Amino acid sequence: MIKIASKTLIDLEFPTICKQISEFCITNMGIEKALEIAPYTTGKKAVFGLHQTNEYLNSYQQDSRIPNHGFDSIHQEIRMLAIEDTILETASFKKIAGLSETANIQLKFFSKNKELYPTLYETSAEVEYTKEITEKIGEVVNRFGEVKDEASPALLQIRRSMNVVKGKINSSFTSALSKYNEYGYLDEIRESVVENIRVLAVKAMYRKKVKGGILGNSKTGSIVYIQPEATMMHTRELNNLEYEEKEEINRILKTLTNYIRPFQDLLQDYQELLSEIDLISAKAKYAREIKGLLPKITKERELHIKDAYHPILLRANNKAGEKTYPQSIELKKDNRIIVISGPNAGGKSITLKTVGLLQVMLQSGLLIPVHEYSRMCLFNRILTDIGDNQSIENHLSTYSYRLKNMNYFLRKCDDKTLFLIDEFGTGSDPELGGALAETFLEVFYERESFGILTTHYTNLKMLANELPHMTNANMMFDSRTLEPLFRLQLGEAGSSFTFEVAQKNGIPYSLINRSKKKVERGKIRFDKSIADLQKERSKLQKTTDSLKSKELLTTKQKDKLEETNAKIQQKLEGFQELFDSNQRLIYLGQKINDLSEKYFTNRRKKDLIGEFIKIVEIENSKRVKETPKEQKVKKVKEKKIQEEAIKTVEVIRERKKEEKKKVDTAKKAEVNKPKANLKLGDRVRLENGKAVGTIDTIEKGKAVVNYGTFTTSVSMDQLELVQAMKKK
Asked: Which of the residues 64, 483, 507, 518 has the least number of beta carbons within 10 Å of its own beta carbon?
């Protein structure tokens, strides 16, 4: 049974991850579920959840994309269905039909593609597929959310009657409008609408001459609005029909509600399924953004995280356009506990939080940003002690709180626990607190728990060095600038660089020297030895990285040379075949030419034919009989060889053109290059020459150059400046 405390989730900022995932949800229920994501209670459920997310993520690369799962919540409708004799509105039926249809599409899709999405199919397999709900609602409610005329014969008859009456109303109103307009009783606007009823705009002086009901008048009182008498009669009839329509619709909706009522559990299942798919989809979208993947989940107790990123930091840095440094760390049976040391601001706490957060995410069914070769197991408990955690409310100091926390650790720690402790042992006297922390660490070690802790205490570093299944580690720093490299180095404890950092920040050396005298000589030497080892490790790492990059470059160049060599060899073979073929044709041509000359001299046709047949038979005897297929292949091969030859010639021509162009450009640049302003004492040489001399005199565009053993007079245009005379 896996049980991870809410304090651990808060320490590792897991609620922030949940909030970020909820931003990718498209339904209200999905958002609620995303904000409540928590680690699964069993390893089987955790692995199932991981496969759900991984399958959805992989669907983005498939041709069979998962259909849309959006829906409107029907919580209110389900509550009403649970109450006897309630009647749902048409809008509610429209939402129910939409939910049912979307759920059916999902069920059908996963059933059809169960080989491609086995885990998602299993997620949906227990929900019933039925078109009964959508078909029944479709018989009554149209796509605009209105009751159809065909919902019942009575409703159809009522609406037909209503249309007839509406026609009579329009006809009678038009007749009255025409009649009273001819009499001159109407105002210029002729008609208006009052309380959704068409009325005549009658001049006040003629109101008694128009038969009908007065429904109002204008603000000035000059116009009286009258509904014609004939129209009033038909309107009363329409009102009666509208009442009958309302009653019939109410009866139809009641019947439909009673029909849908038994499906309320299924509708709840549909909501749960679609909201679950929404959550899985959001997890997949989040994984896509942080480049998350599913590492190998092992039954063996091991934690090998390679190139891991803290997802919250990664997102923030990506938005800010800054670099995020990955971390690699390994815990296994023979290396269960890692003690990280080194100066502050080097990334110790981030490394600790990265491991913890990724482990919690993995056990909550979330894909994590690590290298694909990473391997991870599942822990029953993850215990954390990160941050200050002072409790003003309970009057607890930092150290009291930490002791209380350690007591909880001692009760819960076992071989299936991962513990993460930041600044282990701090908050009390370094000697006494360090001794107590060392004892706690020995207990965790004896119980075979897995863990990572950060510390500045020398005794904990020494303990990690002495015990076989515990390892020291440090966050690497640049030995020259003391800037953090944000890279974890296993195998060595880290120096706190206390005095070095102080000196870098401008603390006077005299004060640093006085401080050194207050500390035990052995402790300073130990810390200095660690610092020196880190510097050497840093240099070695740089050399290793350089050698690796050179090796990679050499391998690439070797592969390229081998590829080029193979292409050249292939072309040479092709050219040889082409050459042999051409030589044979030249030989045959020569033979034919000899026969032609002989025939030209003696004019003996018989001898010519005999000689020609002899040549043909000799050539045929050399040929191997080929099938039509082999002949076709041979022709294609010959054509390919010729094309390659032509292409090679073209490439050579192009290269020669480019080389000539470069030479011409260089010459042009040389010609256009501005000449240096030569002066007495400048060291110069002739253009394209090697001997360097010094200018002694300049007169009429010529200079006398002294080469040491001899002097010569040269035109200034032919000289190049090697070094200007130094100013004294």
From this structure: 518
